[in-house]
């Protein structure tokens, strides 16, 4: 049996923010820190330790504070986290686009590793589909900035986001949370758990999340930007509570049947003359086959065994699968012109082992990680208007891409406390990534492919029929040195190397590969070299300060960073020709080298206490991020350096937020009020500036009022999001030349997707 088959078999067998406060660490329990100034306990380095001892740039959001702020899904934390962008990918409701410090991945097709790792209860999610996780049954969400890989899971080049669900309590617990608000938002979450014996506990949650559309599809007569989600999670825990072994088995399921999210045209139809609509949430998109349908589910088993006073063994086994059918109407018009029926299918099996060690002066871990992942997509690009003009009815640029990942890693990280003041942490990771791909790209006629309900297509040209594989190996070290001039203060300096594996572009056209012989025939090696791309790497340097000041009334976290980013993968898609006929092609290169530098600061200040009677408080929490990301080399299509006219996508130079919150005793309980103002500067959607799509700087204003009973059994909240009803672009499609000529289709594609408008809703919670 081969090594990876053995590992696969073993894996299968073992299967403070008050109201809206972002704490500058992974808060286990933010409540004590709010007024008493006690140290926040964090787990950023896989062990419990004080925030002031962690030389890592990290933010965290507890489940309680997320609920008090009215957070809806994981993207809500983006506005209050420095140098972080989390948003729905263009054209979808449930696919996540994530960027941290200029590093990320916008395109969700297989073949590209994520620049930012997303974890659900320590399980790495290999693909971004179905990853816009809703906020329910959550203990905390953690955001780690900079390269990660020596402490857990998958290597990630830009950072990691960890969604941690609640552990089961030792006694019967029931919680019911309901929400109703504007656009007929109606959410309900029921959570129940109970002990079966002293050692066994079971629990689960069921969530129904729904909302009417922000706009309408004027062609299909359905809502646009609506929400229709069922979700559930179940957990079985065995052991713990003083026992040396804890086994946690969990499963989750999500079904999203929301309508497809269609965009707003920014230009009139070039052929039809269809005018630009007044409401940016309305659309004229005509594609609704297949109907959007997203299914995602998985199983995980986490075992923790305390072997001795010094050693702990952990095993994390997981299997996940998701399928996303989605119609994407690029031109957002009734005509069959750049209409894309698509499906994504993903499956993964992962196994992780960690051996943790802790003594008075040495703490650390050794780990092994394995991932076997399958990611496939197939889609049509229906070019009916184009085909009609050249006598090819039902012209279709069909693409199928299937990418397999087989990867394993060994990693370790140890901290040596030389004195109570000076500590050195060193770690490293060796990664072996194997990528295998099958890519089929054809021009067809007769319309939609059979998997989307069409008849048997007629192939008129094949651009790509390719199979290939490639292996990438890399060692990535990390080191940090910290010094505590006082017990509540720390300064640190760190270095880490990040690595993201290469792959194959599943949309690439073999006929676009260089023809060295000039005979019109490309060799396998020429196609292989054209479709594949190399890993990207980053050398990241960071210095920081963390401390509590003024009798612990102010906690402050400041970091400055510099990154040398090389072999940057630049994915893209263009209008091209296959067999002399227009089609859609992907082009991915390692065209760029960049330097990224910036600063981040987070502050939590208790401004007043007991100013209006017992229990009253006034607090300010702020976050600031600045990033200067510049390409130093960017090889354009003509082979020349165009770095001076290229920009970083989804990376605003400034991200700023401030929350003012207060609490006072009222009506046998407590009343918390908070208001948050956040700002993001100019954001580019692509590497090439596009004024019509690029979003100028804007501010969002949120506010919440929440009453909680003294026994914590009841709460009632009123929440407002985007209270000024600001319209802002989050993503878009562009197939227009600089002179306004369409490069794909005939009506022209310049389509924008917008963030949520003003929403006001009430929440009520009952728990026992």
UniProtKB/TrEMBL annotation:
It is found in: Cell outer membrane. Residues 251-723 form the TonB-dependent receptor-like beta-barrel domain. Residues 52-160 form the TonB-dependent receptor plug domain. It is a multi-pass membrane protein. InterPro entries: Beta-barrel_TonB, Beta-barrel_TonB_sf, Plug_dom, TonB-dep_rcpt-like, TonB_rcpt_CS. Gene3D superfamilies: TonB-dependent receptor, beta-barrel domain. Keywords: Cell outer membrane, Ion transport, Iron, Iron transport, Membrane, Receptor, Signal, TonB box, Transmembrane, Transmembrane beta strand, Transport. Residues 1-27 form the signal peptide. Its main location: membrane. PROSITE patterns: PROKAR_LIPOPROTEIN (PS51257), TONB_DEPENDENT_REC_2 (PS01156), TONB_DEPENDENT_REC_3 (PS52016). A motif (TonB C-terminal box) lies at residues 751-768. It comes from the Bacteria. Belongs to the TonB-dependent receptor family. This is TonB-dependent receptor.
């Amino acid at each position: 049996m081969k090594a990876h088959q053995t590992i696969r078999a073993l894996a299968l067998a073992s299967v403070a923010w008050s109201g809206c406060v972002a704490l500058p660490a992974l808060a286990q329990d933010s409540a004590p820190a709010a007024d008493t100034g006690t140290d926040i306990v964090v787990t950023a380095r896989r062990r419990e330790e004080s925030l002031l001892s962690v030389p890592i740039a990290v933010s965290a959001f507890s489940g309680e504070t997320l609920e008090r702020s009215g957070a809806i899904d994981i993207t809500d934390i983006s506005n209050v986290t420095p140098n972080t962008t989390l948003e729905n990918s263009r054209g979808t409701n449930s696919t996540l686009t994530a960027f941290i410090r200029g590093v990320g991945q916008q395109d969700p097709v297989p073949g590209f590793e994520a620049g930012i790792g997303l974890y659900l209860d320590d399980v790495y999610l290999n693909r971004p589909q179905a990853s816009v996780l809703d906020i329910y049954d959550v203990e905390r969400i953690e955001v780690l900035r900079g390269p990660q890989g020596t402490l857990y899971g998958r290597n990630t080049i830009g950072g990691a986001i960890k969604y941690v669900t609640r552990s089961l309590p030792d006694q019967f617990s029931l919680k019911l949370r309901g929400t109703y608000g504007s656009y007929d938002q109606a959410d309900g979450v029921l959570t129940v758990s109970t002990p079966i014996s002293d050692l066994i506990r079971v629990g689960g949650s069921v969530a129904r999340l729904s909302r009417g559309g922000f706009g309408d599809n004027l062609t299909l007569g359905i809502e646009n930007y609506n929400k229709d989600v069922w979700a559930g999670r179940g957990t079985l825990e065995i052991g713990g509570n003083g026992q040396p072994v804890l086994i946690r088995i969990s499963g989750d399921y999500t079904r999203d049947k929301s309508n497809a999210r269609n965009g707003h045209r920014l230009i009139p139809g070039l052929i039809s003359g269809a005018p630009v609509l007044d409401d940016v949430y309305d659309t004229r998109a005509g594609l609704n086959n297949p109907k959007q349908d997203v299914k995602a589910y998985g199983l995980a088993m986490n075992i923790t065994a305390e072997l001795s006073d010094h050693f702990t063994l952990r095993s994390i086994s997981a299997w996940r699968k998701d399928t996303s059918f989605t119609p994407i109407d690029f031109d957002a018009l009734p005509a069959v012109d750049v209409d894309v029926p698509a499906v994504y299918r993903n499956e993964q099996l992962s196994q992780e082992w960690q051996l943790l060690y802790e003594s008075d002066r040495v703490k650390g871990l050794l780990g092994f990680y394995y991932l076997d992942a399958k990611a496939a997509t197939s889609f049509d690009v229906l070019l009916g208007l184009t085909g009609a003009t050249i006598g090819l009815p039902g012209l279709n640029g069909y693409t199928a891409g299937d990418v397999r990942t087989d990867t394993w890693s060994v990693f370790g990280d140890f901290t040596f406390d030389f004195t109570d003041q000076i500590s050195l942490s060193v770690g490293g990771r060796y990664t072996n990534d194997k990528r295998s791909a099958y890519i089929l790209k054809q021009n067809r006629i007769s319309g939609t492919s059979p998997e989307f309900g069409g008849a048997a297509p007629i192939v008129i040209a094949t651009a790509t029929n390719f199979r290939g594989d490639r292996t990438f190996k890399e060692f990535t070290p990390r080191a940090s040195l910290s010094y505590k001039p006082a017990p509540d203060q720390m300064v640190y300096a760190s270095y880490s190397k990040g690595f993201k594996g290469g792959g194959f572009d599943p949309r690439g056209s073999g006929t676009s590969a260089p023809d060295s012989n000039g005979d019109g025939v490309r060799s396998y090696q020429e196609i292989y070299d054209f479709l594949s791309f190399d890993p990207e790497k980053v050398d990241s340097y960071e210095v920081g300060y963390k401390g509590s000041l003024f009798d612990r009334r102010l906690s402050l976290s400041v970091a400055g960073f510099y990154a040398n980013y090389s072999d940057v993968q630049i994915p893209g898609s263009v209008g091209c020709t296959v067999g002399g006929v227009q089609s859609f092609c992907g082009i991915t290169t390692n065209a760029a080298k960049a330097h990224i530098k910036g600063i981040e600061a987070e502050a939590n200040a208790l401004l007043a206490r007991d100013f209006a009677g017992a229990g009253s408080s006034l607090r300010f929490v702020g976050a600031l991020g600045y990033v200067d990301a510049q390409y130093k080399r960017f090889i354009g299509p003509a082979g020349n350096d165009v770095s001076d006219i290229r920009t970083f996508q989804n990376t605003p130079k400034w991200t700023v937020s401030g929350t003012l919150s207060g609490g006072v005793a009222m009506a046998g309980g407590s009343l918390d009020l908070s208001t948050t103002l956040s700002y993001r500067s100019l954001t580019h959607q692509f590497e090439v500036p596009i004024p019509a799509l690029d979003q100028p700087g804007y501010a969002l204003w949120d506010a919440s009022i929440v009453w909680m009973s003294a026994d914590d059994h009841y709460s009632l909240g009123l929440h407002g999001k985007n209270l000024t009803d600001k319209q802002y672009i989050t993503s878009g499609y562009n197939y227009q030349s600089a002179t306004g000529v369409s490069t794909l289709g005939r009506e022209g594609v310049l389509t924008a997707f917008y963030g949520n408008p003003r929403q006001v809703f009430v929440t009520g919670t009952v728990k026992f």
